[in-house]
Amino acid sequence: MSACKDREQDPRIEGIASSIRVVPNFPKPGIMFQDITTLLLDPKAFKNTVDLFVERYTGKDITVVAGIEARGFIFGPPIALAIGAKFIPLRKPRKLPGEVISEEYVLEYGTDCLQMHIGAVQPGDRALVVDDLIATGGTLCAAIKLLERAGAEVVECACVIELPELKKRLTPNY
Amino acid sequence: MSGCKDKEQDPRIEGIASTIRVVPNFPKPGIMFQDITTLLLDPKAFKNTVDLFVERYTGKDITVVAGIEARGFIFGPPIALAIGAKFVPLRKPRKLPGEVISEEYVLEYGTDCLQMHIGAVQPGDRALVVDDLIATGGTLCAAIKLLERAGAEVVECACVIELPELKGRERLNGKPLYILVESR
Q1: Which end of chain A is more exposed for a tag (fewer CB within 10 A), N or C?
Q2: Which positions fall inside the Phosphoribosyltransferase domain (chain A) (predicted)?
Q3: pLDDT above 70: percentage of residues in chain B
């Protein structure tokens, strides 16, 4: 685990990186799982993580923070609260009550689906998408599509961890 | 949906209560689902909700906030961050990587299971359990047991909403419950 080297590194990042635990062979053999629960057990590291995002997005007229179930629910709300934005949970099927829109995305084997409430987001909203980690980008891509279908402008995606070796399916702007 | 009338009511509570949406017949016919997503769409109401909990727990030497998947993940972390406590996610089976302890609990039909990481919590930790809503209290009860098995002292359970007719408050192993709004 290393912090990003291609940008001037904030001194808080090394401590954040060191608090993330790698669990081998989870959820299946060959996968080195990036476990952020150990970051959450370190109040300073957790605070620094949120602060880094809040500092970046304060004053950028972000009106929506969308968090991807479930670990995006841990990082998204503190950011939303600090910048005064709405928080919108993006969820697996049949979790959100009431009317939703759905976006299907491809898994290694088969497909999955992400849902968002109708009416949560309007044209003119400026949105962030937050998750703990980006791997292939499939889930984040589905999240972007949901927000754009509702008329929002997705300003940026924000994750604690990136696995850069995996092919990402976001457009170059992100 | 009403704020609790049996205590001096903070003026912020009425606004919070009014942002909660009731969705009939979800997830199945007959259930009036208390939907907090509309609260989350109101930055002032969401901030007030978190502030009410933070004001209550600041200075009480709380070292752990445990949040129940998934809506407890929305309210727990802001509280933990504000009071300087660890946040511990309590999850459905097979979601947490590494070694876990499990606590089974009873559903209307069948059972379910809540898990916590081994090592997340130690003897001496003073814990809050946070979820969006208490119904029968089954999930909260399982959460309390997990924390106590790991040696923590559960100080209180904190929920935004209580469904008092389901008497969940009586199923918390004697632990106190703090809530903001009641739904009858």
Answers
A1: N
A2: 59-168
A3: 96
CA separation for the pair A75, B130 (Å, rounded) = 16
Question: Is the ipTM reported for this complex over the cut 0.90?
Answer: yes
A71 classed as catalytic: yes
Tokens of B56: 């209550």
Q: Do B180 and B161 contact (CB within 8 A), yes or no?
A: yes
Residue ranges with strand state E in chain B: 2-3, 21-24, 32-35, 64-68, 86-90, 100-106, 111-117, 126-134, 153-162, 177-182
Minimum-distance CB partner of B46 among A71, A87, A95? A87
* Under 8 Å between Cβ of B12 and B51: yes
Q: Which residue of A has its CA nearest to B120?
A: A41
Q: Return the ∠ at Cα A63 (arms to A58 and A64), rounded to 5°.
A: 105
The C-alpha atoms of residue A147 and residue A54 are separated, in whole angstroms, by 21
Q: Do B1 and B183 contact (CB within 8 A), yes or no? A: yes
Q: Which of residues 6-45 of B touch A (CB under 8 A)?
A: 21, 23, 26-27, 33, 35, 37, 40-43
Nearest beta carbon to residue B85 from set A43, A71, A87: A43
